[in-house]
């Protein structure tokens, strides 16, 4: 044993020395870009793909993609920014569009403006709008949350509905269909989390309205779209065509388990829907139902996010160049993430690619991507403002009152007073 | 003599004494007093994120006009008023039952009841969430036994959600309080009970007239501790409701509201500091009342 150690010792020492010198060399040259994002099947995987592409042409830059839960990313970012020390922060962070203005306005100087570098005219216009403060544009637009109505063809067929019957519905007709689906198949029409106002936001934006007007002032009591959306949610609850869910995982479980017949949400859910191979061929996609108000459309948006570079980052220049090179110009990259991950990017030039033309066997050979891309251009543009989280909380707080039959105008007043107390 | 001491050796001891405690005092000042003072200063400022400016009493005015704060305060007080007495009483009863030397397997029972306290707050909240889901084990058991015909919406109905939080914290903390009572019961002289029994005092009267009065200091202590714990309630609600305090803010607590104001909403650190001072004042007030109620009365 002793001899063995003696024989190997010089070699080990040599290796260690070589290792140390190697480390020293790489430390001097290599740049590592740290990135925070939240969905391992979606933006994390996509960012790793983007990083691999960039490293191919720039071998000196490597990537460290850190995967957190979304709320943890937001909380860690907010804490780091508030503490004023940059050490704990990444170089690039993913921020959901609803929260973008909040971060940009409450932490001025924390994010790097990209106005001169990135050509924003190549992106969907609403994306650049949510990341503009005082004429400066921050961030690299990423995915869109264009919405669709995913439905189980098999359940609806049992209830006597063909795919044609699912096109261009109104919400009243949707509820009507839901009742028949439950009567004939015993399945609920949709999963609904009473603590998540996502469905209200989808409906409201489809009619071109938001919690706030263009100036960022609360737009509640006179908001016809919000009123109609709340009435519709009330009707869905009274008709009892929904399966209640508590939290995101629970809600996802309502359709992955096959318990509900439809899902109304953003296109980013496609990956999750397709994650159930036994449901292949059973799903179809239709435009979301429309509200019965002026300006109502069948297109809306839920979520969607963008990449932001931290001003304090040591690798700021590399990070910006990376985003611009891959997310700003690489059409082929967008084709790949669309096919593999179902990410509908907001780079307009990417839409002409072959992937958007492809038919998806999971959806019975429908050209779903082309469809979503068409809807994306019809999404009404609204101002998300800086208090969407607060407004959402106020709306969810009042949802039970609506089910109990409180007049919607009173509910709107209550929401309005709660929001007024929150935004200061 | 006293004067001489003060000037010479006493002074030497004073200086050395202070030198010894100085590092500890310095750390306390840096990590306790400075943040407390700073948060007090922050509570007079308002603004978005880092754009803070002095606002005087604006945050206190905002408290009055904020329906969410009123709701959080009401919820917190509801938890306190309903849960603390139930838990204290339950812990007392369990402790005196488990103190019975003739009880077989009391070590096992004591461990079983104390075990919830050593489980992680987050882990048990997540478990409770699963157990009390619409199609969870609790609903299916209740339905199988025939107590309910349709599942109880534990997490989606305002009343049941509050009930669930109370059940959860009672489960978690009863054993903790029970241990204090068990320890105190060991200190009560057996002969007192013996005398009472010889005099024909029934078991219930022995409990109310001997056990409870002799445990009074410990009961006071656990009540104050539980009050503080309940007013700072955060983990359970956060994990049961995904950080939202829903449905319709029915389970929102003051601590969760502070968290939301700081991390989820537009960061308003000043207002969050003001709300946290509300908790400080409440805890101080309630502790005073409890000490007053449990004071030694001269007869």
Written account of the structure:
- The complex is a heterodimer of chains A (424) and B (299).
- With 424 residues, chain A is α/β, with parallel strands linked by helices.
- Chain A is 47% helix and 13% strand.
- Chain A has helices at 2-29, 43-57, 70-83, 97-106, 125-130, 153-158, 171-185, 198-206, 224-239, 248-256, 270-274, 316-326, 331-341, 354-357, 368-376, 388-403, 408-422, and strands spanning 31-37, 61-67, 92-96, 132-133, 136-137, 140-141, 147-152, 188-192, 242-244, 260-266, 283-286, 305-309.
- Chain A has a five-stranded mixed β-sheet with strand order 2-1-3-12-6.
- Chain B has 299 residues and is mostly helical.
- Chain B folds into two domains: 2-59, no CATH class; 65-293, MetI-like fold (Orthogonal Bundle).
- In chain B, 72% of the residues lie in helices and 3% in strands.
- Chain B is built from 14 helices and two strands, in the order H-H-E-E-H-H-H-H-H-H-H-H-H-H-H-H.
- In chain B, strands 1-2 form a two-stranded antiparallel ribbon.
- In chain B, helix 4 packs antiparallel against helix 11 (216-231), helix 11 packs antiparallel against helix 14 (269-293) and helix 13 (254-264) packs antiparallel against helix 14 (269-293).
- The longest helix of chain B is centred in the N-terminal third of the chain and has 34 residues, at 9-42.
- Chain B is flat.
- At the A-B interface, helix 3, helix 4, helix 16 and helix 17 of A face helix 4 and helix 13 of B.
Characteristics:
heterodimer, A: 424 residues, alpha/beta, D-Maltodextrin-Binding Protein, domain 2, five-stranded mixed sheet, 17 helices, 12 strands, B: 299 residues, mainly alpha, MetI-like fold, two-stranded antiparallel ribbon, 14 helices, 72% helix, 3% strand
Q: Count every beta strand of chain B, where a strand is a DSSP E run of 2 or more residues.
A: 2
Q: Assess the beta-strand content of chain B as a share of residues.
A: under 5%
Rg from alpha-carbon coordinates of chain B: 25 Å
Q: How confident overall, as mean pLDDT of chain B? A: 88
Give the total of domains of chain A. Answer: 2
Order of helices and strands of chain B: HHEEHHHHHHHHHHHH
The CATH superfamily name of the largest domain in chain A is Periplasmic binding protein-like II
Briefly note the CATH topology name of the largest domain in chain B.
MetI-like fold
SS-based class of chain B: mainly alpha
Strand order of the largest sheet of chain B: 1-2
What does the average pLDDT of chain A come to? 86
The coarse overall form of chain A would be globular
The CATH architecture classification of the largest domain in chain A is: 3-Layer(aba) Sandwich
Q: How far apart are the first and last residues' alpha carbons of chain A, in Å?
A: 73 Å
Given this structure, which CATH class of the largest domain in chain B is correct? Mainly Alpha
Low-confidence stretches of chain A: 1-28
- Terminal-residue CA separation of chain B: 43 Å
Q: Helical segment tally of chain A?
A: 17
- Note poorly predicted spans of chain B: none
